Amino acid sequence: MIREQLLQPDPAALTAFLLRHTRACECLVQVAGEAEVTYQGRAASTAEAGNYLLLIKCDGSLQIHHPKGIKPMNWQPKTDHITAAVEGGYCVLTASRRSPAETVRVVMLDIALAQALEIREEVGFTLAGSEAQMQATLARHPELIEPGLKVLDRELLTGVGDMDLYAQDTAGRYVVVELKRAKATHDAVHQLSRYVDAVRAQLPKRAKVRGILAAPSVTHPAATTLEQLKLEFKEIHALPTAQEQAAQGQLF
Fold it and tell me: Which tens digits make up the pLDDT trace of 21-80?
């Protein structure tokens, strides 16, 4: 499980470690020790020098934890760019994203431990009430999204990720469906937009592509962005029944 571990790394070794593993995106990276954290984006904040735990997951998401509490003090659900460099004798990690524009900068003052952990997803595990079950139900019953909708593929791989459902409507238009089990946010809208753009780029120019965000509800900012991007929202509460789960062997 431990692919690489550094104890009391110097700035140069820590920088090389972070560059190596954030570029490969194959391991969960955690760094523990004294650091200073600054954030610039929709707001601005600074966490003065203290002991923190930094986590960078394989999908590029970033979390910075206090010694106490459940929630991270700072996080980015998605990053577009992560880099590290030695500045002023310290290793400095910078994580940024374009939409919304924000940057987290971590100055590593005295790091005790850096680890790259190879953690594999457990095959066959399905949490009751999860998005995976919601996806399975809607793939079997796409009419819950729209009458006449025909599912062409699930988890279709694109250059920007795996779209939940790829379908076609009664008018022959291609439909990208992004599913959210909870209230959909601004991030979900931009994720859907990226999938729609990726599909359009692969199809003939005359082909028409729609994007549908399916969730129980949507935040007001997300709804506004959907309208601006000419994407659609469908209120969905579909989950497998107990009988369906049992038939799939998903009950435990």
Answer: 999 988 999 999 999 999 998 777 888 899 999 999 988 899 999 998 888 888 888 899
Same domain, 47 and 85: yes
In a domain, 244, yes or no: yes
**Can you give the length of the chain in residues?**
252
Q: What is the DSSP letter of 63?
A: E
On whether the CB atoms of residues 146 and 165 are closer than 8 A, the answer is no
Domain count, the chain: 2
The answer to whether the CB of 102 falls within 8 A of the CB of 96 is yes
pLDDT tens-place string over residues 17-28: 999 999 998 899
Q: What is the largest CA-CA distance in the chain?
A: 62
Cis amide leading into 100 (omega within 30): yes
Answer whether 0.90 is exceeded by the pTM: no
Domain limits for position 242: 131-248
CATH number at 38 reads: 2.70.180.20
Beta bridge partner(s), residue 29: 56, 116
